[in-house]
Amino acid sequence: xxxxxxxxxxxxxxxxxxxxxxxxxxxxxxxxxxxxxxxxxxxxxxxxxxxxxxxxxxxxxxxxxxxxxxxxxxxxxxxxxxxxxxxxxxxxxxxxxxxxxxxxxxxxxxxxx
Length: 113
What we know:
It is built from three helices and four strands; from the N terminus they run αββββαα.
């Protein structure tokens, strides 16, 4: 979205893909800046620089991912099939057993008990 900040985009994507209204967990100091002129952005838990290989739709390129930790009181997931093919809550052991990126497994190992 035009002029969308990284934290706003992350929250929008979670809602679009799952129907869940989430809140970013921000452990950085609160500067009490909330105005239009300057405001504090929530700090990502992790930033990842990754090479995306070429495929039949795109050339090889780099991504910089901002990974946020989020929480929500909602437990019901509403899958938006035009966005994703499957969404569900998983335990740490299930995530570690998935065929997924090493970064996903490493982050989950750090944050899930």
